[in-house]
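User: Here's a chain of 246 residues. Predict its fold as tokens.
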Amino acid sequence: VMNQQREIIYQRRRKVILGTDLNKEVFDVLGVTINDWLYAFEEEGFLEELSKKLLFKLLISVKADDLRGLSREELFDKIYDAAKVVYEKREKIITSEKVRYIEKMIMLGVIDANWKDYLFNMDQLREGINWRAYGQRDPLVEYQHEAFAMFSELIKIMDEEIIERLFKTHAIEEKLTKQVFKVEKERFIHEEYSALSQPPKVETDRPIEGLPASEESSYERKGEKIGRNAPCPCGSGKKYKKCCGK
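Assistant: Prediction complete.
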């Protein structure tokens, strides 16, 4: 069981590493993922949930009312075409070379991370599968059934995570690319004042309450000047520089 599953994952991984153009692979995964989302087509509230999923996963805004009355096949075509248009539009902005690099890195990262988690879960399954014999069940048959179900779920999780991360990463890259080439006129919030210049002087004949005295004002000392090595007048017995003159 594990050898068969391992070969499938490694084959997919080799395809990503050796592939020069993963665009077709991305759209194949997109189609499989959308089909999985349409599995609950007949359930109540499906269109509302689908609309939320498209916004959260693909950052595509489609109202549920715009999807009403469509068959399952029409829904697939509408969503797939809309996603493909968005993806190709962002590719033109980001550049194809960068998009191909992003595709490869995301695909490899998702496959490796989920495969490691899956191997751990399979170890847990093997350790406890023999207990099924106490329930009059064949541990080997039980292991094969559960391993198949877990592997199917693994592929589904991988596909959905790849698509979600690709669309979100492309949206961020598109925003950054536009900001780099965006030219805007800069201006100060207060155009009459610059942090590099002196603050404006206040024309007044008397001090304003709450403002420091101007540089032209002089300081008048009250009392005799105390030397730094003289005894502190507070009576502590210490020198002025060691006490109140710090």
